[in-house]
Amino acid sequence: MTAFRLDDPTPADPRRRWGDLDRAARGACYDNNAGVPDSAAQVAARNAASAAYRAAHGQHLDIPYAASARGTGESDRTAFDLYPAVQAGAPCLVFVHGGYWQRNARADFACFAEGLNAAGWSVAMPGYTLAPESSLAGIVAEIGAALDWLAERGPAHGISGPLVLSGWSAGAQLAAMQLGHPAVAAGLAISGVYDLAPIRDTYLDDKLGLTDAEVETLSPLRRPVVDKPLTIAYGSRELPALVHDARNLHALRAAAHVPGALLPVPGADHFSILNEFRRPDGLLVRAAQDLLGGTR
């Protein structure tokens, strides 16, 4: 297990006293919007920057990866936005957005392709059906289908290099679940939720309706370890439950002697951490590059 210093400033995991918390207090443990005072302003700035980046890089947007998608925009979520590098064989970061599996869209995160594009990488952003229209098991399967499509058809869109599968928040759980996909070389999980059991006791389950089987089979902390490199990042100002999930997943993997770093991002909260994708020298850009042996 990973050892942490006795003066670790992170509060104790509130789930250790879960039985003492009412439903509202349990929900607060996962409420990132309330936990970051300027979250609304950060989200508005992110969405504006993403709209501008998407408008300036519109050649490979809204490309369906599933037969049900018609490619007509955000009403069809099972589609890709692709931001290919100049060199088709460049590495590609596949970024899965978050929103507790029930909100947000790939278009809202386009600006986070900027740093890797500037560093010579491609970026691919898949969307997925949101709960309650889809179950979480169905969403996980959609990400697998997206990776199948990218492996087969990515070269036709200028993407044929190794894939690093990444995700943020709920997207980190989806990325961790598909780390074993044969097209994936490595993973970068950011600010994720890796044990679903406590989620069932919060407002988040109103739309998810998690089953016992989904908790057991879709929680990365309850799954067999995948022997591929996985960097697990979190902000030092994240909610404690998310910090401890990141640490617990890294400890589980370290005990199995599989590769991957634990990456605390100093001063970052749940939203600002993604700004480390905005610059070619950003911490998350460098983390992705290091997963492929420092490919830059």
Low-confidence segments, ≥5 residues, pLDDT <50? 69-75
CATH architecture: 3-Layer(aba) Sandwich
Instruction: Note the gap between the termini.
Output: 32 Å
Counted by DSSP, the helix tally is 10
Give the CA-based shape. globular
Level of helix content? 25-40%
Give the class-level CATH name: Alpha Beta
- Percent strand equals 5-15%
Work out the number of β strands. 8
Task: Count the domains.
Answer: 1
Class of secondary structure makeup = alpha/beta
Main sheet makeup: 8 strands, mixed
Write out the strand line-up for the largest beta sheet, numbering strands in chain order: 1-2-4-3-5-6-7-8
**pLDDT averaged residue by residue:** 94
Order of helix and strand elements from N to C terminus: HHHEEEHEHEHEHHEHEH
What is the CATH topology?
Answer: Rossmann fold
CATH H-tier superfamily: Alpha/Beta hydrolase fold, catalytic domain
Give the C-alpha Rg. 18 Å
Q: Can you tell me about this structure?
A:
This protein has 296 residues and is an alpha/beta fold. Helix 6 links the parallel strand 5 (163-168) and strand 6. The radius of gyration is 18 Å and the shape is globular. The chain is 32% helix and 14% strand.
Short description:
With 296 residues, the chain is of the alpha/beta class. The chain has helices at residues 23-28, 32-35, 39-56, 114-118, 136-153, 170-177, 205-208, 212-218, 240-255, 283-291; strands spanning 63-64, 79-83, 92-96, 122-126, 163-168, 184-190, 230-235, 262-265.
